[in-house]
């Protein structure tokens, strides 16, 4: 159940990427993948390589994913900038 909370928090934070220039590696889809993977990897890492079950999941479980998501999005943005990806003009 905690995995669902981590993924939903990663997804929620991903929505805020529309407020920064689109220089993510892989564009908005790359940012989506990085946010989901970052939240799950961070959540599993800080829980001792386990996924808490339904009875062990609290609101704190969802908040645990925030640092991992932000780190992953930062990496995705930095890699995109280093590769010289220009924002898409609409």
Could you outline the blueprint of secondary structure elements for this entry?
Blueprint lengths: L1 H13 L12 H20 L12 H5 L1 H18 L8
Which terms would index this structure?
elongated, 90 residues, mainly alpha, 0% strand
Quick structural overview:
Helix content is 62%, strand content 0%. The protein has 90 residues and is mostly helical.
* First-last Cα distance: 39 Å
The figure for the number of domains is 1
**Would you list the SSEs in sequence order as H and E?**
HHHH
Structural class: mainly alpha
Low-pLDDT segments: none
What is the overall pLDDT average? 91
How would you characterize the largest beta sheet?
none
What's the tally of helices? 4
Structure summary, number of beta strands: 0
Relative helix content: 55-70%
* Percentage beta strand: under 5%
Based on Cα principal axes, name the global outline: elongated
Radius of gyration: 14 Å
Task: Outline the structure in words.
The chain contains four helices and no strands. The protein is mostly helical and 90 residues long. The protein has one domain (2-82). Helix 1 (2-14) crosses helix 4. The model has no long low-confidence stretch (mean pLDDT 91).
């Amino acid at each position: 159940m905690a995995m669902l909370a981590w993924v939903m928090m990663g997804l929620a934070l991903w929505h805020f990427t529309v407020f920064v220039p689109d220089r993510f590696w892989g564009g908005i889809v790359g940012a989506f993948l990085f946010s989901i993977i970052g939240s799950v990897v961070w959540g599993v890492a800080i829980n001792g390589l386990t996924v808490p079950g339904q009875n062990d999941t609290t609101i704190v479980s969802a908040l645990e994913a925030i640092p991992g998501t932000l780190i992953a999005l930062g990496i995705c943005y930095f890699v995109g900038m280093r590769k010289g990806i220009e924002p898409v003009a609409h």
